[in-house]
Amino acid sequence: MAPSGSRSIKRSCQTVLYWIPVLFINLIVAWSYYAYVVQLCIVVYLLAYHVIFILFTWAYWQTIFTKPMNPLKEFHLSHSDKEMLEREDRGESQQEVLRRMAKDLPIYTRTMSGAIRFCDRCQLVKPDRCHHCSVCDKCILKMDHHCPWVNNCVGFSNYKFFMLFLAYSLLYCLFITATDLQYFIKFWTNGLPDTQAKFHIMFLFFAASMFSVSLASLFVYHCWLVFKNRSTLEAVRAPAFRHGADKNGFSLGLSKNFRQVFGDEMRYWLLPVFSSTRVLKTLQASTRRRVTWDNLRRLNTRGCSFQGKLQRFDGEPMFH
Ligand SMILES: [Zn+2]
Ligand SMILES: [Zn+2]
């Protein structure tokens, strides 16, 4: 068989495999709905249950199907840049070429050795907080991690949805655990009629309480990351700036850190709709205006960038 044929079969198999965890979660959610609404069916709780269920599935859907954002075209190498880079065979000469290319881009992070961050695979200068995902095979803006449970990269475009997914799934599990508790106790004290429903009630309680524990720890961890303005990758390894590694390099204070993810308008905070519009506009504007390190330094700031300290100037005429 031709190598390209076997490659495409391998890719198709991988695509199917990557959807298995999502299918697994969906089956559990569908069963939990059946067990709670049809088998347990506590009428007084059904309205609240459905409100939580809709918010949870909406946030989950948004996390799965929101495409991760890739770097703007300004970060990609032009044809002549690529040729120039190919001509240089030594590391230092290549870095010189990259430095020249990157000088007009709003980039403040470096590799640990102080070099310009470059993605060989996508042929681009990596914006700050951007990382190449080996599963998606793309560079993802403010990449947090690749999540197998949503078969998607969690990053700038869907981090708020991911947070709400964690929050609403935790609320969903806690709600089921709390309202199912009295029937769970009756199950062990033989207070339930001997029907098929009693087993659904028991397993529902076990599943909901177990998921509550794991979701709570994940949710608390990500709340901490949001308030510190760190991604999971940055929590593992501090980003390196010109002045060296700085784990708080992107932090703007609790309130601004929170607003970078959830947006400025409070009415959208609890809804899984994209609301970091100001951050996105600042990113695009700063790239188009060719914000440079020297410009930033003139304004007496520490070098930070995309979704970082650049935000201080949002709404003001930054550079002329
Ligand atoms: Zn890449
Ligand atoms: Zn990915």
UniProtKB/TrEMBL annotation:
Residues 117-236 form the Palmitoyltransferase DHHC domain. GO terms for cellular component: membrane. It is found in: Membrane. Its EC number is 2.3.1.225. InterPro entries: Palmitoyltrfase_DHHC, PFA4/ZDH16/20/ERF2-like. Its main location: membrane. It is an enzyme of class 2 (transferase). The chain crosses the membrane at residues 16-36, 42-61, 161-179, 199-227. Pfam families: DHHC. PANTHER family: PALMITOYLTRANSFERASE ZDHHC16. This is Palmitoyltransferase. It comes from Esox lucius.
